[in-house]
Amino acid sequence: MSLIEAIVLGIIQGITEFLPISSTGHLTLAGKLMDLIGTPNHLISIDNPEHWTAFIAVIQLGTLAAVFIYFLKDIIHIVGSFLKENLKERKSFTNQSTNSRLGWLIIIGTIPVVIIGLSFKHIVEGNLTKIYG
To answer: What are the residues facing 45 on neighbouring strands?
Structure first.
């Protein structure tokens, strides 16, 4: 894969990550259209789909880093308020600041994702996520 191809895929990732569409699906479709994946003579072939999975994971880490940096100030305020108001001051939920309550809501919202993710791990890591020619 050339630098230009990686940049194009990075742009596709950046645009599609924040839309209600599958950024991974669009990356894979673009990879196929750019003739980067599929046949046995490609770097990312049918025999080595883990190369494509690794590329997608790395490119999505870039998106995660960008979001984390953009929201770093907010994240620090949420974590600081949550720890202060729940561990140090022991305030009730209704008496907590918006940032502290947001910390609770993030925790509560994460629980179903963890349960569903662990329950369907065998499907997520199975044949449904492999690249076929």
So the answer is: 38
Asked if residues 35 and 9 have their Cβ atoms less than 8 Å apart, the reply is no
Single-letter code of the amino acid located at 82: F
- pLDDT tens across the length of the chain (133 residues): 778 888 898 889 888 888 888 888 888 888 888 877 765 555 555 456 677 788 888 888 988 898 899 999 999 999 999 999 999 999 999 999 999 999 999 999 999 999 998 898 877 766 655 555 4
| 55 closest CA partner among 92, 75, 78, 27 | 27
21: left (phi over 0), alpha (psi -120 to 50) or beta: beta
DSSP state letters, 73-100: HHHHHHHHHHHIIIIIS---GGGS-HHH
At residue 61, what is the residue type? L
The pTM for the full model equals 0.66
Collapsed DSSP state (helix, strand, coil) of residue 12: helix
